[in-house]
Amino acid sequence: MDERETVGWSDAAWLNPPLHAETDGDALLVTTRRESDFWRTTSYGFVRDDGHALLTGFPSGSAVEVEFVARFEELYDQAGLMIRVDAQTWIKAGIEVSDGLPQLGAVVTRGVSDWSVAPVPEWSGRRVTVRASRTGDAVTVRARCEDEPWRMVRLAPLDPDATAAAGPFCCSPQREGLTVRFTGFVLGPADAALH
């Protein structure tokens, strides 16, 4: 992949269409369905696979960025970037409300889900970009708020032969009606280095 290209909102396909989605200029406004989520088993004992994700191909050697703004208010409100192979193999990374604060985190699922978070209250209501870069047997996830430096979020395994898709996602496990304004969806070459 030689250069970055914007993915048109209509050029990707919904996994679990949201309650509402409409374009607003170059942005896509997405409103979640009631109690939507992605999670597999760990600690909670349930499987949820009904969150909303707008996905396009994510081959090895490429990177994808998703940019968004949202007012996260309820427990587990979340938005960001999803990478998906199938219902048992996926990664989601972005902002999620937990312990009363917006948290920058990721869930890596390989049969069962794990979860890691770090508080970012200063990111509330601001433009966030999540970037995933796929090289070899790994995905490197980074994020930033507005034009601040990139932060490392996660290094996760992904089978180099797996057919994966990626794009913006959002969920609201405790309610209906989280609205997320997605302002960017870009594909490009994978990052040259981990650090």
TrEMBL record:
Superkingdom in the source lineage: Bacteria
SUPFAM superfamilies: Concanavalin A-like lectins/glucanases
Gene3D superfamilies noted in UniProt: 2.60.120.200
One Pfam family matching this protein: DUF1349
InterPro entries registered for this protein in UniProt: ConA-like_dom_sf, DUF1349, UCP022704
Record-given protein name: DUF1349 domain-containing protein
